[in-house]
């Protein structure tokens, strides 16, 4: 499995990478939403961890573009932005989860749960007659 981390802060990308790197075979990074679409197209990651506030293109716009081109994309918003209005905007853009950067342990749990679901589904498919 692989993952794309999209954040304009190199320090935050490094922190997120440390939290999740043992869960993935490949970790890709970019620093804005505009680059995220190209990176998604090139690498087709299993998950995208997307910040909201970035300079060239914000994460909500990037999420909408990625989901429009690749409906199967799994995008998790990872941000400092709090509030139900921002969570709803992320959901409307196509994000599957919303995690506050202060709680990267929650992000890790979400990814582990998703990987476990995928493994379970794969084992079920393998066991069909």
Description of the structure:
The protein has one domain (2-127): Response regulator (Rossmann fold, 3-Layer(aba) Sandwich). Helix content is 52%, strand content 18%. It has 5 helices and 5 strands, in the order βαβαβαβαβα. The protein has helices at residues 10-20, 33-43, 59-69, 84-93, 104-127, and strands at residues 2-6, 26-30, 47-50, 75-79, 97-100. Strands 2-1-3-4-5 form a 5-stranded parallel sheet, with helices on both faces. Strand 4 (75-79), helix 4 and strand 5 (97-100) form a beta-alpha-beta unit. The longest helix is centred in the last third of the chain and has 24 residues, at 104-127. The radius of gyration is 14 Å and the shape is globular. The two termini are 27 Å apart.
Outline the fold blueprint.
Layout: E1 2-6, H1 10-20, E2 26-30, H2 33-43, E3 47-50, H3 59-69, E4 75-79, H4 84-93, E5 97-100, H5 104-127
Parallel strand pairs: 1-2, 1-3, 3-4, 4-5
From the N-terminal CA to the C-terminal CA, the straight-line distance is 27 Å
Give Rg in angstroms. 14 Å
Strand/helix succession: EHEHEHEHEH
Poorly predicted runs are: 118-129
Q: What best-fitting shape do the alpha-carbon axes yield?
A: globular
- Helical content band: 40-55%
CATH architecture annotation: 3-Layer(aba) Sandwich
How would you name the CATH homologous superfamily?
Response regulator
Indicate the CATH topology: Rossmann fold
How many helical stretches?
5
CATH class categorisation? Alpha Beta
Give the percentage of residues in beta strands.
15-25%
Query: Main β-sheet: number of strands, strand sense, barrel status?
Result: 5 strands, parallel
Number of domains: 1
What class, by secondary structure content? alpha/beta
Care to count the β-strands?
5
Question: Could you tell me the mean pLDDT?
Answer: 88
């Amino acid at each position: 499995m692989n993952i794309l981390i999209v954040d304009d802060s190199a320090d935050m990308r490094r922190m997120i990478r440390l939290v999740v790197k043992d869960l993935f075979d490949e970790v890709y990074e970019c620093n804005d939403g505009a680059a995220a679409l190209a990176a998604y197209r090139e690498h087709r990651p299993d998950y995208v961890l997307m910040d909201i506030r970035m300079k060239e293109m914000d994460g909500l716009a990037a999420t909408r573009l990625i989901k429009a081109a690749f409906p199967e994309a799994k995008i998790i918003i990872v941000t400092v932005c709090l509030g139900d209005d921002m969570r709803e905007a992320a959901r409307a853009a196509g994000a599957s989860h919303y995690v506050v950067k202060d709680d990267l342990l929650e992000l890790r749990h979400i990814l582990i749960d998703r990987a476990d679901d995928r493994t379970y589904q794969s084992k079920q498919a393998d066991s069909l007659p």
